[in-house]
What does this fold into?
Amino acid sequence: MEQATSTEWRAFVKSTDDVTFRLADCLLQAVTRTTRWTPSRATRSSHRPAFRTRSRCWATKHRNASASSVHRRQMSDPPVALLYDIHGNLAALEAVLAEAENAGATSYLLGGDYASFGPWPRETAEVLESLPAIARIRGNVERWLREEPEVPESARPLVTAALTAARESLGPELVERLYGLPDQAELDGILVCHGSPLSDIESFAPEPQPDEERMLAGEADRTILFGHSHRQFERPGPNDTLLVNPGSVGAPLDGDPRAAWALYESGRFGFRRTAYDVERAAAQMRFYGDWADPIARRIERGSY
Ligand SMILES: [Mn+2]
It folds into this structure.
């Protein structure tokens, strides 16, 4: 039984992110320390601090247009905590929020995949809703609360069970608010998305791949902030872009079970890892039944 659900989970992940699935088997080296990078040309060229949310269509047609919803930031402003892929892991989120506050963060950028596929869907979504978020976008699991998941038949039992549990926990009003979030946002000229500018289920791998330019959907000369693959990294991308993935708060997949996130301050990203009570989160996940065991193990191991 356990083997069967594990196989379903792998099939699900493979279907949503084939590139990173292959990399999962390469036992990526865990990121165990805080790292910082010097902004590349892509980021340095974005000196007009601004936050704004927008639709995908708006992004294409009016990238440089001014908007009344722009939140301007100064370089001396306190850091912003970048939180992606929390996946209902309240224990991880609470530890990260405490550390972010200690680090001086006064606002948050929320990158999607908030509640589903984790132990505490509603509680996690409520805490996230209460945060002073400077940008808040939708991930694929928020979209799947109302739309048919793009997964193969073999993965459908696990995905259906997880989404059903999340919907029951969230209730109709939270489901509606989460589903209604925008797909993309902008932070100081940085494009904020869930998987890639192209898609919320296709994402960039930690190492360059031959066909990745397609996922930029025409974006160039800027920093792209994204998550979805649950791997914390930054590297140059095609078209003079810089690719930045803060990693997953609730379910990292690089072999390090600690929560992954990042701080954005003065045009720089600082990667962080935060220890929390992993066993408590895994135990809570197992209350949902046998189907939840692969998710509990993913939380414990920080890998599949
Ligand atoms: Mn995702």
Notes: The two ends are 16 Å apart (CA to CA). Residues 4-34+42-301 form a domain with the Purple Acid Phosphatase; chain A, domain 2 fold (CATH 3.60.21.10).
